[in-house]
Amino acid sequence: MITVSDLRKVYRQGSNDVVALGGVSLEVPTGKIHGIVGHSGAGKSTLVRCLTLLDQPTSGTVAVNGKELTNVSADELRDARRRIGMVFQHANLFDSRTTEQNVGYPLELTGTPKKQIAAKVAELLELVGLTKFAKAYPSQLSGGQRQRVGIARALATDPDVLLCDEPTSALDPKTTDEILDLVKKLRDRLNITVLIITHEMHVVKQACDSVSLLEGGFIVEHGDIASVITNAQGRLAHTLLPLPGDAPRSAGAGTILDLLYTGDQATEPVISAVSRTFNIDVNVLAGSVEQLGDQQYAHLRIQLPLDADVETITNYLLSNGIAVTVKGTK
Amino acid sequence: MDFLTPTVQKAMLTATWETVEMVLISGVVTVVVGLLLGILLHVTGKGGLAPVRWLNAILSGIIVNITRSIPFAILMVALIPLAVIIVGTSLGPVAASVSLTIGTVPFFARLVETALRDVSSGKVDAALVMGSTKMQVIRKVLVPEAMPGIVSAITTTVVTLIGYSAMAGLVGGGGLGRMAYTYGYTRYNPGIMILTIIIIVIMVQIVQVIGDLIARKVDHR
């Protein structure tokens, strides 16, 4: 479990104070994958650097399984850091070392006997499927393979938390999914807590149990995937399940509604139910329906005829557990 | 080749050996001292592993920059008294090595600093996050990762030393520089002049080829 409370980072720039993090709090329970999403400049990098104490936060605390990382001595910090395994965007492997030497690096630091290192490294390479490449140098590996080495290296100290900083942003879509599947597999196998910092919504959809939206140094929205995706007022719903590119705002006259719903409703014929119950024609302007995890989610934009009783229909939809936004009449 | 009398042959051999001696002594000392100084320059610098502003200012601004801005010909002459203090004489290749070393250490240290700066900060971050001490970061990450650059720096420095050693020969160091001057210039013997040049060119080539070979061997980038 990782607990972050009221983490603030203020940089001094000339005579101005620049607030990079305005008080970030979050808690990821053991065995869960949490995503932190945000655009560039939202404070993601600062957050990562503060979580690992590469930068000293101005105030606030970071704790792994109740053990604080902030406000400890340099020696204690080094030990504490070994409770967090970190995966970097560009893997940051050491080019002068082979795969096995890279993975063994964290163990070398504490003077672990060579035999023990070799055994642990072999086990980790097996886990990430790179046994064949033990003697290869990073330059001989593909981007996906390098990231696997990075993950194996991060796991060498048996950390409680895996912190992934844009782990797939330098990878192609297929490799991205492979790496995310690996992260999920590791979570299941090791019951490790995972924190993924990313700008890619795809990563959140593919791997995360819960998500936080970071903006301007603040977490502006957070929750389980199911709850944020069906929150019509939230921003995450629209970015996680966007309507296709140039969704038409209208096709002729009528009232436009946006519907967000999940699970059972998504498999039920909501639209035709409305059509039959109110005896009107419903026009579907745009929509996306996706399976995330074991749950199905839908985001639809529909148009009702001008003479339809919008309020009654809205209430009918709401009573069926569907989030409705009236986009206006034209 | 009639200028190659037995006397000249012997002198040429001695001179070549003296040059090798000067380059070897000053080369080894330069690499050891310069590597340490280069690491210090990088580590204490802005954004370095352990920034120490005043120390960096002294090392970089005063020692390195001032030494580097003095032309070697002048530095060499100026350092003759120092050679007397350290090795007891101002003559011979060992004495010349003192000024050679002091002249090239700052140059080599700067090259090492550049090579270390080329190691991406991400690798240093990764090493720190994994719980490395600063010493471990230097020994296990910074230096090994910069090794290809450091090897090239050593090659460049040794080649420079060969050139400087010829100059040092003129003020009592001996070696091929002296040979070219006394036999080639003063006695006006173009054959000897050309031969010393050829020997020096071959030396430089050998150093360069070996250096490139090692650099390729340690470069896994």
TrEMBL record, chain A:
SMART domains: AAA (SM00382), NIL (SM00930). Residues 2-241 form the ABC transporter domain. GO terms for molecular function: ATP binding. The keyword Cell division does not apply. Signal peptide: none annotated. Keywords: Amino-acid transport, ATP-binding, Cell membrane, Membrane, Nucleotide-binding, Translocase, Transport. This is D-methionine transport system ATP-binding protein.
UniProtKB/TrEMBL annotation, chain B:
Gene3D superfamilies: MetI-like. The chain crosses the membrane at residues 22-43, 55-88, 94-112, 149-172, 192-215. The keyword Cell membrane applies. PROSITE patterns: ABC_TM1 (PS50928). Keywords: Cell membrane, Membrane, Transmembrane, Transmembrane helix, Transport. Pfam families: BPD_transp_1. This is D-methionine transport system permease protein. It comes from the Bacteria. It is a multi-pass membrane protein. It comes from Glutamicibacter protophormiae.
